[in-house]
Amino acid sequence: MKIGFIGLGIMGKPMAVNLLKAGHEIVAFDVNESNVKDVADAGGRAAGTSKEVAEQCMVIITMLPNSPHVKAAVMGEAGVLEGAKAGAVLIDMSSIAPLASQEIGKACAAKGIRMLDAPVSGGEPKAIDGSLSIMVGGDKEVFEEVKDILLVMGASAVHCGSIGAGNTTKLANQVIVALNIAAVSEAFLLASKAGVDPKLVFDAIKGGLAGSTVMNAKAPMIMERNFKPGFKIDLHIKDLGNALETGHGVGAPLPLTAAVMEMLQTLHADGCGQDDHSAIAKYYEKVCGSEIR
Ligand code: NAD
Description:
The chain is of the alpha/beta class. The protein has helices at residues 12-21, 33-41, 50-56, 67-75, 80-83, 98-110, 123-129, 140-153, 165-193, 198-205, 213-223, 233-250, 255-269, 280-288; strands at residues 2-6, 25-29, 45-46, 59-62, 89-92, 114-117, 120-121, 132-137, 154-161. It has two domains: 2-162, Rossmann fold; 168-288, N-(1-d-carboxylethyl)-l-norvaline Dehydrogenase, domain 2 (Orthogonal Bundle). It has 14 helices and nine strands. Strand 8 (132-137), helix 8 and strand 9 (154-161) form a beta-alpha-beta unit. Helix 9 (165-193) packs parallel to helix 14.
């Protein structure tokens, strides 16, 4: 099938390449031309605008940083809605505010375009091996129609409810991940300051109740001082900002999320915004003047 792909960054590029490997044609666009070239080199066709992508495809995927980028690519000048044909399906796989998904979904519906919000969890490694967890909002029938395409990029795709439900699920995911990294950082600094080798702490507890996918992925990065993203601090600030706004809107207080948000903001102000979110450990290290080693 011919699939449009808009947004070819850390996540979008390997996802588009997996669709190519599965035999789909890809029409690709990104405002960063070198990203488009990479996908063209892998066998995709380059487009000059989101409109041009939409003119050629009945399924269009977006994988962009946040709500304003998706609104610009879909509803803006030379955007998807200027080119898409009635009946086309827009699958927004970016992590954005649920309310923005609903707003974009309405604008799509007005032009006969069907939209799903389908954010992912798993990060770059799982984008590369096609084993992302995909959480989907929107019409169930549309979800069933494109499920096989989603399962090229993911190991699972779960329909969570109406449009916006995918991003609400993703916000829950991001709250758990951020708090878990902060907990790992806090605990490993405690061990390190108390004179116990954090590598031994990791080996001793990873199979017990404290073990988690987050700890398995991030504790080794922290101990190796490898803060190459992965998932950037600045993107997690975006997600927790969306979580806090949504939580306040629906009357769900998020005190722990607010605390970790301030850690992230501190790191951003300190020039670490482009680090992997495992660099939450640096917050504790700076406060204590001591590294986790
Ligand atoms: P990224 O910054 O690496 O890539 C985003 C791409 O979008 C860039 O190449 C940028 O040039 C392009 N772009 C921005 N505005 C555009 C526009 N108007 N039109 C076309 N292209 C545009 O980000 P990423 O890490 O790939 O993340 C993408 C989304 O996936 C985000 O919402 C993020 O929160 C989510 N996500 C990321 C990860 C991760 O580990 N990186 C994991 C899960 C979910």
